[in-house]
């Protein structure tokens, strides 16, 4: 049985969150909307556009709420995500990872014909030439931004000179228009100390400014400067180089970002709206119980999950295999029995969401909607 078959009858029943089968992905609607509104307000106050990253939630329903609040569109990590969002009526899509495979380029050219405002990041003249051929064959056009490597060496042109050379290659294409640049400092997003993160971003932004200056001098001034993330959004707004922000995880907040001082004064601008609810399945040892959420239910690349409710917050969560994790509370004790409910803040929201088919949307402990994780499995 899928989530809809298991849980649809619980929608609207008072306190029905407690009746959900576990492990289950739970989304607090009021907190989600508060986070969306808070980030939109921060960007709007600085006159900066917000194009939040859809790879975080992979949800047409959430993207619609972001756009309704004022977002200019959403970012997508892959062509498959972009196709799902476009089919869901979401406009203003930006594919942030280079599309290079021949079949994917053909799909991109087709998508450009049915998705108004579609943009893609590029970092290679040869790929641009293949895009031009595919677009000409399809009779479509595409806007692009030049991806700039911020030092990760993952994607992006490696120098101001390479950026100018790529701009020249784009200018020679009849079906491709250069709109600007993309710059995402992924390493700096999770630097926990604000001062250290601030210093790192100031240095990296100085390099971005040099690339922008080189492009401008060559006759290709960027209209759009897109990038940033949840970890650096305050600093990037302060520095004022970006014209739009791509922050994504703020809608959910995971343990990785909750461990960061995002504001410099220790206050939290966003609260966790996403959780995985689990149940105790075994309780035969002192200060240790086993729950039904393991590697298949929670991402493992962001450390351990954190207990939000159902046990003391200092309780440790330790993975114990595909299906299980242990709650350990030495010196505290756990008054938990099989069947008891525990709610967890996820370590890393993006890959955790990708493990589930649906969000169970709740308000005040009541299941109010079930939303599909629309782009799950559409990584290609």
Structure description:
This protein is of the alpha/beta class and 380 residues long. 31% of the residues lie in helices and 22% in strands. The chain has 11 helices and 17 strands. It has helices spanning 3-7, 29-45, 60-69, 79-87, 102-112, 125-138, 160-171, 194-217, 233-239, 255-258, 349-353; strands at residues 24-28, 49-50, 74-76, 93-95, 119-122, 142-147, 176-183, 224-227, 244-245, 274-285, 288-291, 306-309, 316-319, 325-328, 341-345, 358-363, 366-372. The longest helix has 24 residues, at 194-217.
What is the end-to-end distance? 27 Å
Rg calculated over all Cα atoms: 22 Å
Low-confidence stretches: none
Would you list the SSEs in sequence order as H and E?
HEHEHEHEHEHEHEHEHEHEEEEEEHEE
* Percent of residues in helices: 25-40%
Oligomer: single chain
Please give the structural blueprint.
Layout (H helix, E strand, L loop, with lengths): L2 H5 L16 E5 H17 L3 E2 L9 H10 L4 E3 L2 H9 L5 E3 L6 H11 L6 E4 L2 H14 L3 E6 L12 H12 L4 E8 L10 H24 L6 E4 L5 H7 L4 E2 L9 H4 L15 E12 L2 E4 L14 E4 L6 E4 L5 E4 L12 E5 L3 H5 L4 E6 L2 E7 L8
Parallel strand pairs: 1-16, 2-9, 3-4, 4-5, 5-6, 6-7, 7-8, 8-9
Antiparallel strand pairs: 1-10, 10-11, 10-15, 11-14, 12-15, 13-14, 16-17
């Amino acid at each position: 049985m899928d989530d809809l078959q298991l849980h649809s009858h619980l929608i609207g029943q008072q306190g029905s969150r407690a009746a959900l089968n576990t492990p289950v992905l739970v989304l607090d609607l009021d907190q989600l909307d508060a986070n969306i509104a808070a980030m939109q307000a921060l960007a709007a106050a600085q006159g900066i556009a917000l194009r939040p990253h859809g790879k975080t939630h992979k949800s047409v329903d959430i993207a619609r709420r972001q756009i309704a609040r004022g977002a200019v569109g959403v970012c997508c990590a892959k062509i498959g995500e972009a196709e799902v969002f476009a089919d869901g009526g979401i406009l203003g899509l930006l594919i942030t990872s280079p599309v290079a495979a021949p079949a994917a380029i053909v799909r991109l050219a087709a998508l450009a014909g049915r998705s108004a405002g579609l943009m893609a990041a590029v970092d290679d003249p040869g790929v641009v030439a293949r895009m031009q051929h595919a677009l000409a064959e399809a009779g479509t056009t595409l806007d692009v931004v030049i991806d700039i490597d911020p030092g990760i060496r993952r994607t992006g042109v490696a120098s101001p000179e390479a950026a100018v050379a790529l701009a020249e290659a784009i200018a020679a294409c009849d079906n491709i228009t250069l709109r600007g640049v993309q710059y995402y400092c992924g390493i700096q997003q999770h630097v926990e100390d604000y001062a250290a993160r601030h210093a790192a971003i100031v240095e990296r932004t100085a390099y971005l400014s040099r690339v922008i200056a080189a492009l401008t001098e060559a006759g290709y001034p960027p209209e759009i400067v897109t990038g940033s993330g949840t970890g650096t959004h305050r600093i990037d707004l302060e520095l004022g180089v970006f014209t739009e922000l791509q922050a994504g995880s703020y809608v959910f907040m995971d343990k990785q970002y909750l461990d960061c001082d995002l504001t410099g004064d220790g206050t939290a601008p966003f609260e966790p709206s996403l959780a995985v609810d689990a149940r105790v399945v075994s309780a035969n040892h002192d200060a240790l119980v086993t729950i039904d959420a393991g590697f298949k239910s929670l991402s493992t690349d962001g450390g351990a999950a954190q207990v939000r409710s159902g046990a003391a917050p200092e309780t440790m969560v330790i993975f114990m295999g595909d299906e299980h994790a242990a709650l350990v509370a030495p010196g505290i004790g756990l008054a938990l029995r099989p069947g008891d409910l525990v709610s967890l803040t996820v370590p890393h929201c993006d890959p955790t969401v990708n493990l589930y088919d649906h969000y169970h949307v709740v308000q005040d402990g009541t299941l109010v909607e079930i939303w599909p994780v629309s782009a799950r499995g559409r990584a290609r």
